[in-house]
Each structure stands twice: as structure tokens, then as C-alpha cells.
Amino acid sequence: MNNEAATRRPIARSAIASALIPGLGQILLGQRYRGVGILLGFLVMLGTVVWYKDPVWYLSPVLIWLWNIWDAVGLAGGRARSLLLPVLVGLAAAYGIGWQVVEIDFRNADLDRAAAIVRPMAHPDFIQPRRERKQMWVQVQVPCSSEPPTARREEEGKVATVIPDCGVVGETLIVSVNGMWPNTETEVTWRTTIGDLKLVGEGESQMLVVTTDDAGSLTTTIRVPSTALVAAPDPSLPQFHRVYFDQYRPIGGVELSYIGNEVLKGALDTVAMALLATGLAMLFAIPLSFLAAHNLMGGNPITYVIYVAVRTLLNILRSIEAIIVAIVFVVIVGLGPFAGMLALALHSVAALGKLYSEVIEGIDPGPIEAIRATGANWVQTVRYAVIPQIVPPFTAFTIYRWDINVRSATIIGFVGGGGLGFLLVELIRVNNMRGVSAVFIAIAVVVIVLDYFSAKLRERLV
Amino acid sequence: MLRIQNLSKTYPGGTQALKNVSFEVNDGEFLVVIGLSGSGKSTLLRCINRLIDPTEGKVYWDNVDVTAAPPTELRQIRRRIGMVFQQFNLVKRSSVMTNVLSGRLGYVNPWMSLIGLWPQDEKKRALQALGRVGIADKAGERADALSGGQQQRVGIARALMQDPKLILADEPVASLDPVLSHSILQYLEQLNKEGITVICSLHFLDLVHRYATRVVALKDGVKVFEGSAQEIDRAKFKEIYGEEAQEVRAASM
Ligand SMILES: Nc1ncnc2c1ncn2[C@@H]1O[C@H](COP(=O)(O)OP(=O)(O)O)[C@@H](O)[C@H]1O
Ligand SMILES: [Mg+2]
Questions:
Q1: Does residue B249 register a pLDDT over 50?
Q2: Domain match, A55 and A146 both
Q3: Per the CB < 8 Å rule, is B102 touching A371?
Q4: Quick one: which atom of ligand 1 is closest to the CA of B45?
Q5: Which of A193, A291, A423, B63 has the fewest CB atoms within 10 Å, measured from its CB?
Q6: Residues A273 and A412 occupy one common structural domain
């Protein structure tokens, strides 16, 4: 009887204590860590749901609070309750809040739009059939002067004419050319005095394409483009514009397209930028790594302080994403590959410094002792016992870092860092999905090829 | 002749590894140092070529005070003292050839050695040294591609490059199995017969009896015995090795 009363009292006491302050009951029962853990978990949960102000989630701290009382009662009776329940509640709340924060909403998804993006991506703009061009042009005056010259030009058996010899904006002109390739599509375009290309097809937004006849001639009408004079300093001043006729025909084989060329250049830029950043980082990381090596610096208090300082600095630098650093550098040195390169270099100094210092810490002292014993001097000992132990792993880590930097460089290009990333942003902006697709492929190829060779090279070094 | 006088070594941590050790080694001897692990054998050998500086006492070699030698002179002393290690202490990533050549660093032009240029006759000498230990064909391989016994032979070839008058061998066969142990010790014995003094630490009684011309025993840094190998019987061995003697005997069979 007495016994029962004695056990019931702590049960009630623990339940009340835990109801007042979650975890207190457990602490009073001697489960200090459990109690503190429950209190912290409860507070974090409460803080989170209050922060996000979504009433639904108030349920979770309440559930944890109830579980905590139940646990205190169980504990007083000598049996702890499973932690599974509060952990599940906590996870559910965390995922729920996360879902809301990310604003997952499939209603906005649009299959047609997706298809419009994905379809051109199946045809990456990288290469095109090799072709040759036949070109002809003729000058035409806009607006008319008092005595306009004849709008007629001859070249290598080709003749191009415009009737009348001059015109004003919007006026219809008859243009004709002969001596071109027969039965071939011909692009007719307008170029202003300063060389701006104007389309003269449907609505001035499409290319006018006319096919030549059996004799290689064509005649068609165009309007002087409405925007022909927008860039002119004085629209009333007569100036010479040009009408161009361009024909293309395949001559067998393929060649890099314009975008393909840009992609190739971007890939090289990216690899070079990563290489430069890695090299620069290596220069700084090598001396720093010696300062961050415990076996060299642990000996006396002063060097130990330097060791701790350098280590801490490297750890902080390493924890900041290169792209964040890139944004900072863009502010400092301006938009362009230089900012991206510096950001990569800074991040790499930290990463390489740490890896190098671990190599130094792993040096086998045996060979050093053996070389000293031969009567070698200090420099010879470093050359024959230390260098052979650190150079191959240093090189391996550097190649590995370069590999990583190439990936980062493509991302950093997004914030104006040049290379493939920058090209990608540009192409997305003008909605050139075939170009985007080409860039994707280039990134994949560069990364895979580099990954393969860096792995092979590293294999041989270690 | 090597004279060791009142040698003591106290490590920074406070461990007294050697306590007032004195003995002499005549030219041409094969002196074996025995003692339990931690008794100070390695410390003693390293004090002789000053890889470790003794706290007190003197080491005289041919009446030159090694313990007082300034750096340049010390390096000249060291280059005539070859050293062989339990863990071989080869540079694993370097070629066998480079490992052997590095035994010659005390002799060659330091600048040339720094850029890795070795005279032809040094390379020939290295091949000869490798030939003497029977592995001339391994010259081009990476050191860590060799087996333990082969690596220790490279270690001996490296010591040979020093044209040594004295070889210090710190438990040269402790990492090898018994058959290989004999083949390695026979190389040292051969060199000893050609006039090189050998100081070697060993663990097994049968090896001590087979190779030693004289024995010094250490116990907790104190010299507890000095005399001929024949004087060491099982009882004496047990005295030096204490309770662990049983184990050691078993292992040596
Ligand atoms: N570098 C060192 N620093 C501190 N104590 C050491 C060092 N080297 C050896 N000792 C200690 O000195 C004692 C003798 O060691 P050692 O000469 O290696 O003995 P042995 O070679 O006979 O095993 C041991 O107690 C060992 O722990
Ligand atoms: Mg030892």
C-alpha cells in the first residue's frame, strides 16, 4: 500500500512538471539529457511554427507536449516511451513547412510550353551542313536626293537593280537580280547605312525568301523598312542603304554552326578559366598548407596559434560557396570572367590548402631519417625524402580540383563569369533552345572527358 | 674504433631511454644489441650517428668526438656510417635506383643532386650495389612494388653506396619471416667479413648466436650485459628479457 502511494506521487509530480515545462519531469527523474533534449526539441518546433504563422502546424508542438507528459509518466513508472512518435511529428512538420516555403504547385505547369522548350532541344545547334554562299547587293538612296544615282550594280556576271532608284520609308520598290544560281532559295534583306540588318518579309519580322528561275534571276517587291531610319542622325538627309541577295547551297560535309562555334569557344574559356584559377590557388595553397600542417606547427605555442588561425581561415573560406564569392567579386572587380576566376581561386585556395596539409601530415618520417643518415644536407633531404612523398599527391589533388573548378566555372558563368555559363544565360534569354541544348551537351562532354582523364592521371600518380 | 661513454638520453616527454651506457666496439666486430622493445636499442643506434642528440655522454669514432661535431663535419661522419632500418625507410614512390643513389648524397655535388642529375659512374656503382644484393634487375621499379625482403636489400644497397666503415642496423629483420631473416643477415655478415663493422639490434636468440661476435644487452636504458654470444644461454636470455622470454623463444623457433 505504502509502496503504491510512494510511486504514485512521483508520477503525478513528473506529469505536472513536464506539463509546465516540457522535459522538466524527465530532468527531475534524473534523465537530464533526455529532458534537455525534449525541451530544446519543443522550443525549436514551437519557434518554427510561430515563425511561419500557419495554424495547422501548431498541432505538432501540442503533440510533442502531450507525448512529453506521457513520457514523464512512463519514466516515473520506470519505462521510457519510444522517441519515434515525436521524431515523426517533428519530421512531418518540417516537411510540411518546407513544402509551403518552396511553394510546390503543379497547377502552373504547362505541357505545351514544356514541349515548345523541349522539342528544339532534341536538335542541338552545334553543326550544320557545310555550304557555300553566293551574294549580291545593290545600293538604294533613302530618302531621295534631287538627282539619285542609278540603283544598279554589276559584279562577276551578276546584275542587281532597284526601281525606282530611291525611295522613302514605306515606299514599295521593285528589286531584281540575275546571274545567281538557278532554282535556289534566295534571302532578300535590307541593310541600313550603318549595316543594321532589317527583315523585309511578312510584317518586317520574317525573312523574305524568293526562289530564282531557271536562268538564275528573280524579281520581287519590297517596302523600305519602317525602321530604316531610326538610327539616322538626320532622317531627311539622303543616305545609301543596301539590298542584299544571299543564296546558300550545300557542298557536302558539315561544319560548326555559329552557335556551335560559340559553344566551343565557351567550353575552352571555361576550361582555361578553371585552369587559371586552379594554378593561382595552388600558388597560395602550398605555403598555407605548410602552416596548416599539425606535424610541422604543433611543436611550440606560437606556431600552434598560427596553425589554428590558418586552419580556421581555410575552413571558413571553404564553407562559402564559390558562386557567393563570385557575386562579391563581381561587385569589386566588375562583371566578367575575372570575377569568376578570382572566386574560384579563393575557394580553391581553401580546399587545396586543406588537402595539401593533410598530405604533409601524412608524410612518412622514416625516409627522412634514412636520407639524413646518409650525410645528406637539409635541402637534399627535402628533395629526396619529402618532395617525392608530397608532389604526386599534390598533383593528384590539384588535377581533381581543376576538374571540380570546371564544373563550378560553368555555374559561375551565370553571374557574369563568362564561358559556357554566360553563353547559356544569353541563349536562355533569347529563347534559343537549340543553342541551350548544345551548351548542355558541351557541359556534359567537357565534364565527362575531364573526369575520365583526371581519374586516369590521378591513378598513375598515387 | 667506436667508443661510447656514459651515454644518456632523456626525451622531451621525460622518458629516460638511455642511462649512462658505456662500451666499445672494435673495427671488424659484429656487435649485436639485444633488449626488450622499449629498452632503448633504437635510441642507442641513433645516438651513434646523431639522428638523435644524446642528453649526456660522448661518442668517439676513430677518436673523433661525434657528439661535438659541427654540422658539416657531422655530415662527413654520417656518410661513412650506413644505416638499415626495421621498416626499410625507402621512399616508396621513387624508383629502386633513386633510393640506392640517395645513399650517395653525402659525396656528390649537392646542386647536381638537387636537379636529379647523377654522374654515370655513380649510376654504375648503384647497379653494382644492387647486384651485390641480387636485385640488379629491379633497378627501374618503384620501391613499393618490391616484397619486404627485396626492399630491405635495397636498404642494404643504399647503405653500401655510402662506402661505409660502419653499418648500424636497427632490427633489420624484425619485419621479415625467418627464412628471409637469414638471407638479409648473411649479406650483413658478408660485409662484416669484408671489414665493415656492424652494430645490429636483434630479437631472437638463435640469430644472436649465429651472427654476433659480441653482444650488448639493454634493459630499461641500462646496459645489463656485455660479452660474447656464447655467454648468453637461455637463462641469461630470460634474465634480460624477463617474463616475455618464453614468448620470444617460441617465436624464434
Ligand atoms: N621520439 C621519442 N619521444 C619520446 N619518447 C621516445 C621517443 N622515441 C622513443 N621513446 C621512448 O624511449 C624508450 C626507448 O625507445 P626505443 O629506443 O625505441 O627502444 P627500442 O628500440 O629498444 O624498442 C621507450 O620508452 C620509448 O617509448
Ligand atoms: Mg626500436
A1: no
A2: no
A3: yes
A4: 17
A5: B63
A6: yes
Test the B interface: residue of A359, A364, A374, A384 with most B CBs within 10 Å: A374
Task: Answer yes or no: is the C-beta of B15 below 6 A from any ligand 1 atom.
Answer: yes
Backbone torsion region of residue B116, taken as left when φ is above 0, otherwise alpha when ψ lies between -120 and 50, otherwise beta? left
Helix runs in A194-249, H state only: none
Q: How far is the CA of B42 from the centre of ligand 2 (A)?
A: 4
Q: B44 CA distance to ligand 1 centroid (A)?
A: 10
Domain that holds residue A387: 260-461
* pLDDT tens track for A276-311: 999 999 999 999 998 998 888 877 788 899 999 999
- Same domain for A231 and A202, yes or no, is yes
Q: What is the CATH number of the domain that holds A273?
A: 1.10.3720.10
In a domain, residue A117? The reply is no
Cis upstream peptide for A164 (omega within 30°): yes
Subunit contact B78:A372, Cβ cutoff 8 A: yes
Do A246 and A268 fall into the same domain?
no
Cell of A187: 534571302
A436 and A331 share one domain: yes
The three cell numbers of residue A141 are 538612296
Is A366 in Cβ contact with B83 (below 8 Å)?
A: no
Among A373, A379, A380, select the one facing B83 at the smallest CB separation: A373
- Taking an 8 Å cut-off on Cβ atoms, the answer to whether A366 and B85 are in contact is yes
Tell me phi and psi for residue A388, to 5 degrees.
-60, -25
User: In A, which residues are within 8 Å of B113 by CB distance?
Assistant: 380, 383-384
How confident is the model over B21-78, as pLDDT tens digits?
A: 999 999 999 999 999 899 999 999 999 999 999 999 999 999 999 999 999 999 999 9
Tens of pLDDT along B122-180? 999 999 999 999 999 999 999 999 999 999 999 999 999 999 999 999 999 998 988 89
| Contacts (Cβ under 8 Å, ≥6 apart) of A331 | none
Last residue of a domain, one of A218, A234, A255: A255
Residue closest via CA to ligand 1's atom 12 equals B17
Which CATH number does the domain housing residue B226 bear?
A: 3.40.50.300
- Mutate one of B53, B79, B89 to test the A interface: name it (highest A CB count within 10 A): B89
pTM of the full structure: 0.68
SS3 per residue for A349-382 = HHHHHHHHHHHHHCCCHHHHHHHHHCCCCHHHHH
Domain end (from A87, A102, A117): A102
**Residues A294, A185 share a domain:** no
B91 in contact with chain A, both atoms CB, cutoff 8 A: yes
pLDDT band for A412, please (50, 70, 90 cuts).
confident
Q: Which domain holds residue B239?
A: 1-80+166-175+199-253
C-alpha cell at B76: 662527413
Cis, bond preceding A143 (omega within 30 deg of 0): yes
CA distance A198 to A227: 8
A310 within domain boundaries: yes
Predicted complex: ipTM over 0.90: yes
Residue A232: which CATH number?
2.60.40
Both A142 and A95 in one domain: the answer is: no
Q: Is residue B112 part of a domain?
A: no
The number of distinct structural domains making up chain B is 1
Residues A373 and A414 in one domain: yes
A371 touches chain B (CB under 8 A): yes
Beta-carbon contacts below 8 Å between A and B: 84
